[in-house]
Specification:
The protein is of the alpha/beta class and 189 residues long. It is 42% helix and 17% strand.
C-alpha cells in the first residue's frame, strides 16, 4: 500500500528560483519512489510546483483547501481529490488524517504553524509518524539554533531531537523514511 506524504511549504510565486527547482525535484522523486501526496490544494508557489511534478510522474495527489482560499480561484484543477474545508483548523486535521509522513519544505508562517502542530502532537503521543524539516540551502538554520536554545535552557529535553529529522536535501527525506522506526518517548510529566 502506498504511503502518503503530507507536504507543507510556501504558496508564494515570488521566491528565488532555487526553491522552485527543489520543489520540482521533490514532486518527481515522491512519485518515482511510489508515494502519494496530500497538501494545501493550490496551484501557486512551491505547493503548485510539487503537486504538478508529482502528478506528471504518476502520484495520486489530494488537495485540502479552505473555502476562503478556494474562493480566490487557487484550487488545483487536476487533483485526484480536492477536499474543501470550512477553515484552516479543519484543513490541518484533514491533512493529518491522510498523512503517513510530514515534510516541511521552506515556507512562511503557515508552514511553521502546520509543522509545529504536528511536532507537538508527536511529542504528546498522538502519533508516531516521521516529521521532517528540509533545510534546503540553510533555510531552517536559525530555527535549528532556536531549538538548541530550547534544549540548552531545559525548555525541552535533548531526547526530543529524535521527534524530527533535519534533511539537507530531497534524497535525505527518502533515506530517513526508508529507515524510520517509531520510538516511544518518556512522558514529560
Amino acid at each position: 500500500m502506498k504511503k502518503t506524504m503530507c507536504i507543507y511549504c510556501s504558496s508564494s510565486n515570488n521566491l528565488p528560483e532555487k526553491f522552485y527547482v527543489v520543489s520540482k525535484e521533490l514532486g518527481e522523486k515522491l512519485a518515482q519512489k511510489n508515494f502519494n501526496m496530500v497538501y494545501g490544494g493550490t496551484t501557486v508557489g512551491m505547493m503548485g510546483v510539487i503537486a504538478d511534478n508529482a502528478l506528471k510522474n504518476g502520484a495520486e495527489v489530494i488537495g485540502v483547501i479552505p473555502e476562503r482560499i478556494a474562493s480566490f480561484g487557487l484550487k488545483h484543477p487536476e487533483l485526484a481529490q480536492v477536499i474543501v474545508t470550512k477553515d484552516m483548523r479543519e484543513r490541518k486535521a484533514t491533512m493529518e488524517k491522510y498523512a503517513d509522513i510530514f515534510v516541511a519544505m521552506p515556507g512562511g508562517f503557515g508552514t511553521f504553524e502546520e509543522i509545529f502542530e504536528i511536532l507537538v502532537a508527536k511529542q504528546l503521543g498522538y502519533h508516531d509518524k516521521p516529521v521532517i524539516f528540509v533545510n534546503f540551502d540553510g533555510y531552517y538554520d536559525n530555527m535549528i539554533k532556536m531549538f538548541d536554545t530550547v534544549y540548552q535552557n531545559n525548555f525541552a529535553k535533548e531526547e526530543m531531537k529524535s521527534l524530527y529529522f533535519i534533511a539537507k536535501n530531497v534524497d535525505e527525506i527518502f533515506e530517513y523514511v526508508d529507515n524510520y522506526a517509531p520510538q516511544e518517548f518518556v512522558h514529560k510529566w
